[in-house]
Design goal:
By secondary structure, the protein is mainly α. The protein contains 8 helices and no strands. The N and C termini lie far apart (36 Å).
Length: 134
Amino acid sequence: TEALNALGRMHLWTDEPQAALQLFKKAIRLDPHYARFSYINLGQTYREMGQYEEAIETFKRIPPDGQARVNLRLELIACYTALDRMKDAAAEVAEVLKMEPGFSVKKFSETSPRKDSVHNTRFLDLLRKAGLPE
């Protein structure tokens, strides 16, 4: 499943989300017990395709732990904001700032492997619109 996820990420990062979607779904079918990473990738693919409800449903299947708690909440914030569910987005923003008081969109963006991507820019803009500090 690691190879499927790696190949799927390559497709996702080269704007081939349909191919990525199929690979992530296959990885989940083949190894449902190690599906956490596959679900994260699947949710991000749905988000980038503008299928925000599917993305939210997928992200909610992932038990949050460690740093993933913040990253999953950021994904939810972007989806809620895109759907104009600002009350839900605000609740997630409050949780992110409670977990990571010094969080900033700028610092977060510096860790992205897709700095110049249209999808990354859209994601960061949604985080800003939700009220996360620059």
